[in-house]
Amino acid sequence: MYHLNGLRWVLGCFTALFLVFLYGPFVVMTILSFQQGPEGGPQFPIIEWSTFWYKHVLSIAEPSRVAPLPIGDALLRSLTLAFATMVVATLLGTLSAQAFRRNFKGSGVVFYLIVLGMMVPGVLLGLGMALVADQFDIARTWWGTAFALHVVYTFPFAFLVMLAIFNRFDKTLEEASWMLGVNPVKTFRKVTFPMIFPGVLSSMLFAFTLSYDEFPRTLFTGGSEATMPIAIYGTFSVEIHPNLFAFGVLTTLASFALLTIYGVLMALSVRRSKIQSSGLQEEIA
């Protein structure tokens, strides 16, 4: 009993430390984002609270010596790149995992080749792609070479998620559909896809967030048009102003909103799958 209580205290302290390290930077960033403008860098404690730097990020504040963040075009590029990567990586991951539902010759080698994309360090992969592009006189752009590397990086995550979903997929539902005379395309659309949709959602979320935050691969292959992480790094390396903290708070809140939408869609999908599964089983019975 004494050992159990001690273990609970250790686990409790570990959990508390984990939460502090996880959310502590966000709390500090939020506090510093509310300091008074338009002059001055980060300072603590806050002398006077203000929303000036949020207005500065949204370009509705009075002019100051602090230049606006170069986030307009960079944000659009990052969102476009992340969306395109999400679509392609999820599609490839779903099709590849579907192929692995049956054993085929060389499946082990193919599996490790796919997973290799997430294991190779981003700096090495980005540098290698940059050298190859220069060697073959290929322009390095965020929509070309960087996009290819983002897909290579996020595809294994989507593949592993879908592989886990297919491994616990009840094949008898598909077989029942085929026995009822439904063709494979309609079976996939009406039976398989609704059942694996939670995994598809998870793959999309993984691919989008990983691509949106990707730095080393984009640094070497993105060319002259910077994406959001590169643009923020360029601003951060010169001088730190509270508008960076305000922008960080806004993007974090946007991430929480995205996770909330994901949770709602996931709950609706699971509920729909259970209803369809129970209905199909009743038809079979």
From TrEMBL:
From the record, give the transmembrane residue ranges.
Answer: 9-34, 74-97, 109-133, 145-166, 187-210, 244-268
Q: What is its main location?
A: membrane
**Is Cell membrane a UniProt keyword of this protein?**
yes
What keyword terms does UniProt attach to this protein? Cell membrane, Membrane, Transmembrane, Transmembrane helix, Transport
Q: What's its membrane topology?
A: Multi-pass membrane protein
Please name the PROSITE patterns in this protein's record.
ABC_TM1
Cellular location(s)? Cell membrane
Q: Which Pfam families match?
A: BPD_transp_1
Q: Cross-referenced InterPro entries, in alphabetical order?
A: Bact_Polyamine_Transport (IPR051789), MetI-like (IPR000515), MetI-like_sf (IPR035906)
Q: Does the keyword RNA-binding apply?
A: no
Top-level taxon: Bacteria
Q: ABC transmembrane type-1 domain: from which residue to which, for each copy?
A: 75-262
Q: Which PANTHER family match?
A: PUTRESCINE TRANSPORT SYSTEM PERMEASE PROTEIN POTI
Question: Which protein family is named in the record?
Answer: Belongs to the binding-protein-dependent transport system permease family. CysTW subfamily.
Q: What is this protein called?
A: ABC transporter permease
Species in which this protein is naturally found: Sneathiella marina
